[in-house]
Amino acid sequence: xxxxxxxxxxxxxxxxxxxxxxxxxxxxxxxxxxxxxxxxxxxxxxxxxxxxxxxxxxxxxxxxxxxxxxxxxxxxxxxxxxxxxxxxxxxxxxxxxxxxxxxxxxxxxxxxxxxxxxxxxxxxxxxxxxxxxxxxxxxxxxxxxxxxxxxxxxxxxxxxxxxxxxxxxxxxxxxxxxxxxxxxxxxxxxxxxxxxxxxxxxxxxxxxxxxxxxxxxxxxxxxxxxxxxxxxxxxxxxxxxxxxxxxxxxxxxxxxxxxxxxxxxxxxxxxxxxxxxxxxxxxxxxxxxxxxxxxxxxxxxxxxxxxxxxxxxxxxxxxxxxxxxxxxxxxxxxxxxxxxxxxxxxxxxxxxxxxxxxxxxxxxxxxxxxxxxxxxxxxxxxxxxxxxxxxxxxxxxxxxxxxxxxxxxxxxxxxxxxxxxxxxxxxxxxxxxxxxxxxxxxxxxxxxxxxxxxxxxxxxxxxxxxxxxxxxxxxxxxxxxxxxxxxxxxxxxxxxxxxxxxxxxxxxxxxxxxxxxxxxxxxxxxxxxxxxxxxxxxxxxxxxxxxxxxxxxxxxxxxxxxxxxxxxxxxxxxxxxxxxxxxxxxxxxxxxxxxxxxxxxxxxxxxxxxxxxxxxxxxxxxxxxxxxxxxxxxxxxxxxxxxxxxxxxxxxxxxxxxxxxxxxxxxxxxxxxxxxxxxxxxxxxxxxxxxxxxxxxxxxxxxxxxxxxxxxxxxxxxxxxxxxxxxxxxxxxxxxxxxxxxxxxxxxxxxxxxxx
Length: 756
What we know:
This protein has 756 residues and is α/β, with parallel strands linked by helices. It contains 29 helices and 17 strands. 44% of the residues lie in helices and 10% in strands.
């Protein structure tokens, strides 16, 4: 679900540009043809096709945002478009914020660029008193609690993970315009893998809707439903909207749901294709589980035979080596979307070949990935230009641990929002105060805007050089550093445009970005799921965990579901500009049976593998397959079995504890508490989260299977070589009932202990 902070703004749907000071383009005062400078022939064709319908098929990295923003700016500056009559919609607040910024730079002031939900909510708030009467219903920011209540009323006991799935099913039903009573039939017809009995889900869905209605609340899907319904039922209101907005641009059109298309049809009106430009790539359709479908993009020419169709295939993002792999991946695709695939042509110089690596187990994969990242950092690649991408969020913990072990800063995509961080809120208060002060002593003598921002933030401990480590102290510094870098960029752009670059203008820009959740880049390695990585790019990308059952995910049963998993990997590959690494592990944990196989999507691409359906020998792909580091623990141990009942263990926590979750525990409670207290002290000294030292599951495993020697401790999952060296002596002391010694600097001794 997209971030909806900007949706909560009230007012007319016809207001001017989003708040904040414009970052004007130095050439904004020149003629409209200046907008076309620097565009390639296909991008220029998009920019000059001012009258719809227009369909832009844009491959990854081909400059689609550049093309459509220049199209809008060219229309405005040539006088064909009135800026207040243009509405550009996309799917995330970040993308909308980026589009607004580019339009401001191009001199297209007044153009509305919003998410579907943001545009719909503003219209709903504006027209509700006239169309329905009374106050607008309260918007639920999170529906999970209400879904849980509905499930309880239905007599169902739902676990937390099940509750999340149940909520997603209700969202899918609503965006596909499926009523509660029709949900079971719709699931059967679509081939959707329902997380629980469809009849039970339908019952919860019905009670959820009844409860919501009784309380006068609406959810995000209702925003679209109600806006579309008002426009359908009130021709006078629909005419007013269509008079105001005459030119529409829809980005990421392959992700449109039936409900969003219904609203779009109401916005454009009968024959509205004449004012519509859509942009998308069927090969990047990865959100069908939310109700998105590429059908509207694929059938656009059928609905609008007179449409201008432009294909963008010049890839400016990735090297020829990365593009070759991306093209090869799609060459094996099947289905309707595959028939419309775009063959990308790299416009960059040659780079390194993709690297394929096989590992014994996941911890070894994570630890080696972290060391490779350390090498890239040493070679001059910025941490913010490196990403580790995985299929499911549950895969992140082992990489968080591995990066923390090497003191590499990282940020988890989808975690706490930037502008909600305490240090960022505090910085905002300080900067506003400095902007209001006529002669603030903090900023006196600063040579420019960035210098003023540094001076203000220095009063809260900001320093030019980052602190050591990768814990909370480093996270706080990275947030403040991101504000400084934004000030540098903002100051350069404003100065080049001949505009004032002062604290007041900068604070206004921060407010605008906070409203749109358009955060500046934080200097840290990005950890993200493949879904969350859509729309982003990095110099170096590590695609990890590429095994059968994970990618494609095990519940991808139908051909189309498998093809969507292939497209998900394609999205991951095309995030890389230069360095690309693909890896997989043969077992989950050290000592596990090497039963995993690399993803079928790599067949025919990784060297030494055969193409799917090939009856000949292996077809050599580009790149190299490197043997991963072997795990010493794997050689030392066999498969992990429950110490109580002897059952083979599969779940990560169970394998770490070496017992089934339901089997009786032998944990030394007193030791566990001592370990937790010791861990808390360590975390405070390092300024790091507690899990960076050891996770709760690892401490439980230590307290259950109390190690008497360094070798015993090394056999516990979660205690790698680095942690053994750093904390081994202290942990063994605690296990022996002794207090660990501390060195003169206050850090507990991590020296070696002779085997008992």
